[in-house]
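Listing S7. Sequence submitted for prediction.
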Amino acid sequence: MTELATMDFHPRPQSGDAKPWAFPAPERGTLDNGLTVLRCHRPGQQVVAVEVLLDAPLDAEPAGLDGVATIMARAFSEGTDKHSAEEFAAELERAGATLDAHADHPGVRLSLEVPASRLAKGLNLIADALRAPAFADSEVERLVTNRLDEIPHELANPSRRAAKELSKELFPPDARMSRPRQGTEETVAAIDSAAVRGFYEKHVRPATATAVVVGDLTGIDLDALLGDTLGAWTGSSAEPRPVPPVTADDTGRVVIVDRPGAVQTQLLIGRVGPDRHDRVWPAQVLGTYCLGGTLTSRLDRVLREEKGYTYGVRAFGQVLRSAPDGTGAAMLAISGSVDTPNTGPALEDLWTVLRTLAAGGLTDAERDVAVQNLVGVAPLKYETAAAVASTLADQVEQHLPDDYQATLYRQLAATGTVEATAAAVSAFPVDRLVTVLVGDAAQIKAPVEALGIGEVTVVAAE
């Protein structure tokens, strides 16, 4: 009889003790040119993330030139006094780096990712882009043409069209927030290289800018490196721009953007609420997550699992613009899509969920799941340098203390079910919500009017 062979198995690995985790705290400093610098050493993160924030908000755009901040942001990577647009792109590729930029209500942000071994090269390129952008006529014309090509596609996208209409409904016409962030066809067509350079010269300077650097900085003399690159960027001093207050009209009403023949209705329900400086923010985050933050949320459980109206509905809070004096604001919204015949029933059930929340409150189990999902997975969320840098940049942009994110997680863990319920009910009052529906008005108008959730208006889809 053949003897069976035996195998020696490697001992099974044993789990170690859990280590406490907190969002990393940055070191703060200032370069000789006035540029504020936040640095955060993250051992093992060999791809360094750099975020540069410019105090060039959308409400600073000249009248009739909405979108000039976006064109300027995109033009930063289209050549400098040292490199043409093609040469600049080639230099980025040689450094293994990526450079992105975008404009939003708080300002313009440039995002660089580069291997730590080539950080000097990457910082030189972003410094050149900020110090002496070319803004060549041909490149700006191309960027304007590209932007004009994007706009019809955005208007054809139901979710983008809904967002555009909600902003128009909530904010007064003379407020920049009422208009598309990246401009309209009319305003973008009016932008040229002179307009871009004028906006740059008026608002872009190191004294009002901040750079965030995150990654493995072992063996890197960051002070010297920054001094030779971003420190060589010069500009006049200036006081930070005052932040105008946000005003909004959240009188309960419904706007239908008519899309004849649409088989689905895109819905976006929103209002303006407090930003992260308000003490209610942690409870609001928790309550909103319980309402519609995940597949196990109340909205999904009813509209998706029980009724089958949708693939998913989400509730969220997004900071629009932040200010320590309480004049900032966040968009509080519920979004999703449902099949056209069930638009009325879906809205009726959605309002029932909100009323039930106000009457009965959240459960402890819902609160516990939300805390675990928001706080328990935080270490995974911030595994990359880019994720840490982006959050630190958000804190700077929103005038928050450097330890804000770490404090927020402690506050979320300590928030009770009653507090989360009260915050969610306050965030989504059933009689103070603006509802935008992008769909077939002929089929959905009458059922929506029957719900009595506000006056119903129909507008053309453009």
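Caption to Listing S7: primary sequence and predicted structure tokens for the chain studied. The longest helix spans residues 137-156. The first strand starts at residue 27 and ends at 30.
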